[in-house]
Design a protein that fits this description.
The structure holds two protein chains of two kinds.
Chain A (H helix, E strand, L loop, with lengths): L3 E8 L11 H14 L10 E5 L2 H4 L4 H9 L7 E4 L3 H13 L5 E9 L5 H4 L16 H14 L5 H14 L14 H6 L2 E3 L2 E2 L8 E10 H7 L4 E10 L13 H10 L8 E3 L5 H11 L22 H14 L5 E8 L5 E8 L4
Parallel strand pairs in A: 2-3, 2-4, 9-10
Antiparallel strand pairs in A: 1-7, 1-8, 4-7, 5-6, 8-11, 10-11
Helix pairs in contact in A: 1-3, 4-12, 7-11, 10-11
Chain B lengths: L5 E8 L11 H15 L9 E5 L12 H4 L10 E4 L5 H14 L5 E9 L5 H4 L13 H17 L5 H13 L14 H5 L3 E3 L2 E2 L8 E10 H9 L5 E10 L13 H14 L4 H4 L2 E3 L7 H8 L8 H7 L22 H17 L12 E8 L4 E8 L4
Parallel strand pairs in B: 2-3, 2-4, 9-10
Antiparallel strand pairs in B: 1-7, 1-8, 4-7, 5-6, 8-11, 10-11
Classes of the chains: A alpha/beta, B alpha/beta.
Chain lengths: ~350, ~400
């Protein structure tokens, strides 16, 4: 495939509630930042692709307004997916593979704060048989955690260790929303929220935006010293029905990881989009990273979880570490749907690998 | 590296109705997808990836419905993408699917676009109370009527042009068994006497609100060559393009949008079309209100600015004219919004494959499919041909 790299990244600080800005205003610093960092304007971009969902914006065609945050003229080549920005990045990567354009702008955003997020997410479920029961997203994740505990694939202690490590790592992440230094025992002492999940096993509810610039070949090399090359990217989905799949493993993550070529080299850093603590353990198994010692150094989705954006942020976190020379090769993962239904895996690499 | 050839090797659509109460959303999609697969002589397991498109999720009240529909579309263990680019989405979904083959990633991609508008009230769903944008209009017709009035003023078009377009499209729709509206008794006078909804748009010059889906199977050069050898001619994709304009740009001309003109110029260049009126055999364009036919004829380069209405008046765009437009009956006969763009793209492919039945244009070798969305700001087009590029 054609060499395409992440050459610039930006995210807005994750906040529980961005009340004084609308989506366009919240997004604009990310767009300005990601272009400005590599001394580019929208005129230098060949293709633009965004990810967002009308259901969180509370209005149809919400992405139409945010295109004004980019403000291109003359008209541009542009597309939008009703998916996490990681899949917008996938569409942009495919577009650059055609060899006609050299640069792409990818962005995503969401504000979950105006609604009741666990209730809003019930609207993703089968509208005929499941959604009328309004099963909230935390309860569905709790069912998955219970299945994984019963299968002996995870333990409450391992889940608490994920919680403690993630929130402690987040202390070093200026964009994080939830960060603290507390022991695993502290986490285990919490009462259950939706058993077997404790409140700290769950992600925060976040408003935020993020953006990436992709560039191909020599354009990437001209712009930055150390492009984060996309060496493999793949995504897979499973049926939604919870009774139809084994919730204790993530078959689609495993397949996407294989096809993205994770095992073709060492993994220096991994950012896994695991909104719930037990999901990191399931994803580690699926990606062959069970005992890896550098997973989610940003704090992951337990530290900031802007819907439709947290997957793209995983790619940003890995790309930034490669760009800074802290990592040679890394893995970023994004998820969508209830209980890890749909998954994307992206392998990134610096030039010295 | 570079672009691989890609062709349409299977086309399917549902019977379109105001309410398809006989099927679920999954059933609606499978009706179209199953027909496309049968047309391609393929089964579900032959498909490498699926790309789904539809307009706002509020129309059905399901957030990101591709997630629950993944199973019905045979996606277990496969890649599934969901595109949403407003009204142009049916077209842009097909283009995203085509890119997966052009980039050499997949060989057989199923793409499906749909809307089940009976689940909600589409007119009010399209009357957006965005902050700082008071809802001054009711429905898309209220939004577009001023654009049409501007067109009439600029072009000096006589008042009856919209009626002629509506009559032609509704009569073409009679030849299309899948069309939503089959108005056997329609006449020039019945359109003229129908209720004025948004001056100058009459009720009979307006698209219906439909339940429906369209599906295409796209194949690589190898897949398409094999279909051709088997006597099933592919529709080769000769050009693809998308353009978007920001809503609030002071530069915009919503009557003759630059985005639409650039999109057309891009696909024509790729397809080697120098004079569109001469080199294109037929066009399916997105005409939700009758007057958009002359407007888009100008925007897409088939007529000079201000001259599009003359092509309508002369009958050039009739099924037996020199540039037939909306042979299927178009959006004026069938409008499941998310699918409407793909129905245009699909009809163009049916024409060059010679499978359009009673609405077939004799000898069609090169056809254009066009879709637009938002406030005339999102454009998607393709050129398909009978001959391998």
């Amino acid at each position: 495939m054609r060499d395409v790299a992440v050459i610039s990244t930006a995210q807005t600080p994750a906040r529980r509630r961005v009340e004084d800005l609308n989506e366009v205003e919240m997004l604009m610093p990310a767009i300005g930042g990601v272009l400005g960092r590599v001394d580019m304007t929208i005129d230098d971009i060949g293709f633009t692709c965004s990810g967002s969902t009308d259901y969180l914006a509370g209005v149809g065609f919400s992405f139409v307004s945010t295109l004004d945050g980019v403000g291109p003229w003359p008209p541009i080549q542009e597309s939008h997916v009703e998916m996490d920005g990681a899949w917008a990045l996938y569409e942009a990567w495919v577009k650059l593979q055609l060899g006609e354009l050299d640069t792409a702008l990818v962005y995503s955003y969401s504000k979950s704060s105006p609604g009741d997020l666990p209730m809003v997410l019930t609207r993703q479920l089968d509208p005929y048989t499941v959604a009328p029961l309004w099963p909230d997203s935390v309860s569905l994740a709790a069912l998955q955690a219970r299945a994984a505990l019963d299968a002996g694939l995870v333990s409450t202690e391992a889940m608490a260790a994920v919680v403690a490590r993630s929130r402690k790592s987040a202390l070093d992440n200026p964009n994080a929303q939830l960060a603290w230094d507390r022991s695993t025992d502290d986490a285990l002492a919490e009462p259950h929220s939706v058993a077997p999940l404790r409140r700290s096993d769950c992600p925060p509810i976040t408003d935020g935006a993020a953006a990436i610039v992709l560039a191909a070949g020599d354009v990437a090399r001209d712009k930055v010293d150390r492009p984060a090359w996309i060496r493999g990217i793949d995504h897979r989905i499973e049926p939604m029905a919870l009774g139809l799949r084994d919730l204790t493993v993530s078959a689609s993550t495993r397949l996407a990881g294989e096809r993205a070529g994770i095992s073709d080299g060492p993994v220096d850093v991994a950012e896994l989009h695991a909104p719930f603590s037990h999901q990191e353990l399931i994803l580690r198994q699926a990606l062959g990273l069970a005992d890896h010692d550098n997973v989610n150094p940003s704090g992951g989705a337990l530290a900031a979880n802007a819907m439709l954006t947290a997957g793209l942020v995983r790619i940003i976190e890995v790309a930034e570490r490669i760009g800074a020379g802290e990592a040679g090769r890394g893995v970023a993962h994004a998820t969508s749907g209830p209980c890890l239904q749909q998954n994307l895996v992206c392998v990134l690499e610096g030039d010295d690998r | 590296m570079g672009k691989e050839r890609v062709a349409v090797v299977g086309i399917g659509q549902t019977e379109h109705r105001a309410t398809r109460g006989d099927v679920s959303m999954a059933g609606l999609l499978r009706e179209a997808a199953g027909r496309a697969l049968a047309d391609a002589h393929m089964g579900w397991s032959d498909i490498d990836a699926v790309v789904m498109g539809k307009a706002p999720d509020f129309f059905e009240g399901v957030m990101m419905p591709e997630l629950f529909l993944a199973d019905a579309l045979g996606c277990a263990g496969k890649p599934l993408l969901r595109v949403h680019t407003a009204g142009s989405v049916g077209g842009s979904t097909a283009l995203v699917a085509a890119q997966l083959i052009q980039a050499g990633i997949h060989e057989r991609v199923l793409t499906v676009a749909w809307e089940k508008q009976s689940e909600s009230e589409a007119m009010w769903a399209l009357s957006l109370p965005i902050p700082f944008t008071p809802p001054l209009h009711a429905g898309a017709g209220g939004y577009f009527a001023p654009h049409i009035r501007s067109y009439i003023r600029r072009s000096g078009s006589p008042d009856h042009i919209g009626i002629l377009v509506a009559l032609k499209d509704r009569q073409n729709g009679l030849k299309n068994p899948y069309a939503h509206l089959h108005e056997h008794d329609i006449t020039f006078d019945s359109i003229k006497e129908s209720m004025m909804l948004w001056d100058p748009i009459r009720y009979a010059e307006t698209c219906p609100s439909s339940d429906g889906a369209c599906a295409l199977v796209l194949g690589s050069e190898r897949v398409a060559d094999a279909a051709a050898t088997d006597g099933r001619p592919p529709a080769w994709i000769k050009g693809t393009a998308m353009r978007s304009e920001p809503t609030l740009s002071a530069e915009r001309d919503t009557v003759l949008p630059l985005g639409g003109a650039l999109c057309a110029a891009d696909v024509y260049r790729q397809a080697g079309i120098e004079d569109p009126r001469r080199d294109v055999d037929c066009v399916e364009m997105y005409v939700p209100f009758s007057w958009f036919e002359p407007m888009w004829l100008e925007n897409l380069g088939f007529a000079a600015p201000g001259e599009g209405w003359k092509m309508v008046e002369e009958g050039a765009t009739a099924l037996d004219g020199d540039l037939p437009v909306n042979m299927s009956g178009g959006v004026l006969c069938t409008n499941p919004i998310g699918a409407s763009g793909m129905l245009r793209f699909g009809e163009a492919a049916m024409q060059v494959r010679g499978q359009a039945g009673d609405h077939q244009v004799d000898g069609a070798r090169t056809a254009v499919g066009h879709a637009y969305g938002g406030g005339s700001q999102f454009f998607a087009m393709w050129v398909v041909g009978a001959d391998k590029p």
